[in-house]
Amino acid sequence: MPRRPASQNSVKAGLEGPGGLFAGAPGGRQFPLDRRLPVAMQISNVLRDMILKLELEPGAVISKDDVARAFGVSSMPVREALRKLEEEGLVVIKPQSGTYVTTIDVRWAKEAQFLRIGVEAEVVRHLVKTITEPEIQELERILAHQQVEYEAGDKEGFSRDDAAFHAAMYRMVGVGGLWKKIGAMRAHIDRLRLMHLPVGGKMSRILADHRAIVDGIRTRDAEAAEAALRQHLSGTLSFIETLRERYPHYF
User: Fold this and answer.
1) Of 4, 140, 202, 229, which has the highest C-beta tally within 10 A?
2) Which residue spans of the chain are classified as CATH 1.20.120.530?
3) Helix (H, G, I), strand (E, B) or coil at 96
4) Contact 189, 102 (CB under 8 A)
5) ∠ at Cα 141 (136, 142), nearest 5°?
6) CA separation for the pair 140, 165 (Å, rounded)
7) In this structure, CATH architecture of domain 7-101
8) Which numeric CATH code is attached to 106-250?
9) pLDDT tens digits for 11-63?
C-alpha cells in the first residue's frame, strides 16, 4: 500500500490542466451519469476501469472534490465509491491525508492466480464434457476478435476480449457469478497483465494459449485443455521481476 503521495507517478500529467485528471474547471474532464442507476456504483465502475487500465497509476492521488466536480455530484456518493474500491484493494483512504491508488500487491496477485487456476481448471474439465457446437463457435468468435486486435495493436480491446473469453467459459458451465466474485482479487493481476502486454510476444502467446484451450475442449481432451489453461494463467506472474525492474514505482 502507498504510504505517501507519489509525485512521480501520480495522475498522468497534462491531461486536463493544473486541476489534474478530475479538474472541474472549464476544459476539465466530465463524466456523464445515468440517473436511473446508482450513482456511487457508476463512479466506482469508472474509477476501477481507469485504475485497471493504468490511467490512474499506482500511487496516484485521487481528490474527492475533483471527482465530485467531474461527475457533477455531492461528496457522499464519491465517498461510497471510494470505500468500495478500498474494499477491493484498489485504493487506500488515509484520514487527514488523502486517497491513493494502491501499489500492486504481488501477494494478492499470487493468491488470485492460485484461486483462478483451481476454479478454471474445473471449468475447462466441465466444458470438455458439456460444451455445445454453438458455444465452441462463440469462443472462436472471441479469438477472431482478439486476432484482429492483436494485428491492430489494440491493447485495450485485446485485454477486454481476454476477459470476455474467460467469462464466457464460466457462464457456459453455469458459474458466471464466480467470475464476478473473484473480480476484486483479479484487480492486481489484471494490472500486471496490462503492463505485461507490451512485452515482446506476449499478445501472440495469449492468443496461442487461448487456441490451445479451445482445441483441447473441442477434442474432448481434458488433460490438454487443463495444461494449456495452467500455462496461460501462469504466464504473467513469471515476469514479475522483469516488471518490477521496468516499473519499480508500481510495486
Assistant:
1) 229
2) 106-250
3) coil
4) no
5) 100
6) 9
7) Orthogonal Bundle (1.10)
8) 1.20.120.530
9) 333 233 333 454 333 346 788 888 889 999 999 989 988 888 888 888 889 99
